[in-house]
Amino acid sequence: MSDKKRVPKEEPVLPTWRYTDLGEFAQGGTAAIHLTTDRLLGRTVATKIARSDDAVQLRRFRREACITAQLDHPNIVPIHDLGPTWFTMKRVEGATLAAILRAEPYSLTLLARVLDILIRVCDALAFAHDRGVVHRDLKPENVMVGRFGEVYLMDWGIAQSAGEVDDPYAGTTSWMSPEQARGQLCDARTDVWGVGAMLYAALCGARPNQGATAEERAANAAASLPPRPPGEMARTRDLPCELVRITMKALAVDPFARYPDVNALAQDLARMQQGGWWFARRVFAADEEIVREGEEADAAYIIDEGNCEVRQNGGPIAELGPGEIFGEAALLTGDVRTATVVALTEVYTRVITRESLEAELGRDRWMGPLVRGLARRFHELSTENLQRRF
What we know:
Elements: E1 19-27, E2 31-38, E3 43-50, H1 55-70, E4 79-82, E5 86-89, E6 94-96, H2 97-103, H3 108-130, E7 133-134, E8 143-146, E9 151-153, E10 160-161, H4 178-181, H5 188-204, H6 214-223, H7 230-233, H8 241-250, H9 262-273, E11 280-284, E12 289-291, E13 300-305, E14 308-312, E15 315-320, E16 325-326, H10 328-333, E17 340-343, E18 347-352, H11 354-361, H12 367-389
Antiparallel strand pairs: 1-2, 2-3, 3-5, 4-5, 6-8, 7-10, 8-9, 11-18, 12-17, 13-16, 13-18, 14-15, 14-17
Helix pairs in contact: 3-5, 3-9, 5-8, 8-9
């Protein structure tokens, strides 16, 4: 008889009558992801398998599967099946947002792609928030982009559901909001901070809390220290000022100073898709004079919200509303203002200077030369008209 001890054969985790395990292709702290063939339905799925048989860990593992399964949304990966220590989900072929940010050098093209991705992440979050679920672990590694442009928000393992959470301190230290670092109950504005953190990484290649330990994060959170502006983290880059403003508003230390929800943040990001990245936003109070007749022009204005009145020689001649522009003629020609514009209500505008206009036109290969040519022609015609008059 052999002296060698018999090693008991390890029981398969998955039911072999249905699933064929093709091996592990990713892993995290508490689970591994395997590629699996579902023989019953004839498809390949991703299977998340718990790495611990601890009762508390398994309860959290199953909770993650159940929360994700309840979030039936195009930008949230669907759950197919659940077992004692595993669950299967849609296999997503593509790359994480983290891999995209590492692979592609900083460029306006990359930023445009990130805006599209984050708007769809906001859609997924809005759906989850409507059902009382806060993600709490937003980071580029948890956003998957498929080969055909699909976007999925992954890993709901530490999500807060119906105001309950297993571990209030759980999360990734360098991506945590201040209130999460303090172990406080989170809400939708915590995820607003998380989206802002990913936009921050796209702008300057750094995490908002890069290099801080969990203890340091907790201490800093108590001191209410905001992240450094992205321009300080990327000194050689000319960063679009409006995207920087959106990022820092989302990353405000005080949750009440952030966007109230992800829908409001997504609206600003969608507005940026239409252009105006370098156009700073400015608010004017009702009855405030925005431009004055006879002054030299240093800027033009696009109205985002509110209404203005145009006055000439002391009397009203027109009213302007959202989407309309004023002050551009004097800005392009170098002439003085020919009218006064006063805010009738609180007015939100985007400010166009010559410098920001040049930067914005530089984004488009064809539009820039076209607008510059039109501006030169506009100036020539204005000069000819003046010469005829005088």
